[in-house]
Amino acid sequence: MPAPLPMDTRVRIASALVEGNSIRAVARMVAVDKGTVMVLALRLGEGCIRFHNRMVRALAVHVIQMDEMWSFVQKKQARVTEKDPAEHGDAYLYVALDANTKLAISFHVGKRDGENTETFIKDLRGRLTVVPHITSDGWQPYIEAIAASFRGSADYAQCVKNYRGGPQRSPDHRYEPPRNPFVTKTPVFGAPKDELMSTSYVERFNLQTRHTVGRTRRLCLAFSKTLRGHRAAIGLGIAAYNWVRVHGTLDTTPAVAAGLAERPWTLAELVTAALAEEEETEPPTPQPLKLREPPAGAPTAPARALPNGRGFLRLVGSAPAAPVAPAPPAPEPEPPPSEPPPAPQPRRMVQLSLFDP
Q: What's the whole-model pTM score?
């Protein structure tokens, strides 16, 4: 029976994996058999998923951005035949990101369909304690899933970016759209604010994920061969993003910014915590959502909870002023009395002569 790997070797393997290296590349870098690297990567990833499920709960998150990132398992969807397992083909990463702390709140890997969308939204709903402001792309199943899970307790909008093809296209136009996008913002539920309708942060998260999780890169040989391995790789990458990697705009990790940790973790601490997560934790139970507390000094808008948890009846914006009846026009001043005109004098009749000069 082979001896277990030392902890420093496990940390070196995890460090190479979260920097986007493939299994074979990590095996060559650490001088460990490829099978050993695969077994450890699977244990770490599944442990990170269980760790995330247990730790990321009861969040007072207000602004959330959601998106789906494409990847595939074994082969692309166009190459899938009836003989292939159902897990082969497209595998989308659903992710919900806190726009303020940049924390990856919830994630799910599966097909881009209504069933997986509903599973993802249910998981997101169970981790929140306040009414969120949610923005997603134009994926239509989000509307039904959010309506079923949040039941009116969400301000939801869709932000769709439309790209137009210009006359000149670069050789890499398939992966780099033209630089003239325009955005269509559509409120769906509640009272979403125009300045908060954006998916820029979660799209930037997708970009970083393609660099740190080698299974999600395009045109390379590091793609996943099984759905289980694909989920484990993404689970390890997101756990390292939340707890270990210092965010450039925060100067700390998203977990510290969200109040889930007191300081940034080292990768060795994450590896130890992931390997210790051997039992699956029950999914979070949805709690009644509360309205967000206004900032200090801001007026509190009137709100009333609707029966059966159907949301809140809120006053959005400022109430219009009561109409004021126009004042009647002022009467024109009467002219001062004047002397009566002189009476006309009777005209005297004079007989004219034709001989007068």
A: 0.81
Strands 133-136 and 155-162: parallel
pLDDT, one tens digit per residue, over 168-188 is: 555 555 565 555 557 889 999
Compute the distance between CA of residue 268 and CA of residue 274 in angstroms, rounded to an integer: 10
Q: Specify burial of residue 225 (Cβ count, 10 A radius: 0-12, 13-18, 19+).
A: middle
Provide the terminal-to-terminal Cα distance of the chain, rounded to the nearest Å.
159
Show Cβ contacts of residue 108 under 8 Å, excluding neighbours closer than 6 positions: 93, 94, 116, 119, 120, 123
Cα–Cα dist 289/314, whole Å = 14
Q: What angle do CA 42, 45, 47 make, to 5 degrees?
A: 105
Q: What is the pLDDT of residues 189-234, one digit of tens each?
A: 888 999 999 999 999 999 999 999 999 998 888 899 999 999 999 9
Cα separations (Å) of 269 from 21, 151, 175, 210? 21, 39, 37, 24
Which regions of the chain does DSSP assign to beta strands (E)?
63-69, 72-73, 89-90, 92-98, 104-110, 133-136, 155-162, 182-189, 303-305, 312-314
7-166+177-281: CATH, from 2.60.40.2250, 3.80.10.10, 3.30.300.30, 3.30.420.10: 3.30.420.10
Using an 8 Å Cβ cutoff, are 226 and 23 in contact?
no
What average pLDDT does range 64-82 have in this prediction?
Answer: 95
CA–CA distance, 343 with 39 (Å, rounded to integer) = 127
Model pLDDT for residues 2-46, shown as the tens digit of each residue: 568 999 999 999 999 999 999 999 999 999 999 999 999 999 999
DSSP H or E segment with residue 29: helix 23-30
> Collapsing DSSP states into helix, strand and coil, what is residue 228?
helix
Q: 293: which residues sit within 8 A by CB, 6+ positions away?
A: none
Closest Cα to residue 108, out of 274, 265, 166, 119?
Answer: 119
Residue ranges covered by each domain of the chain: 7-166+177-281
Backbone angles phi and psi of 232, in degrees to 5:
-65, -40
Contacts of 69 (CB under 8 A, 6+ apart): 92, 93, 95, 206, 209, 210, 216
| pLDDT score recorded for residue 162 | 75
Q: 242: which residues sit within 8 A by CB, 6+ positions away?
A: 52, 56, 103, 104, 253, 254, 255, 260
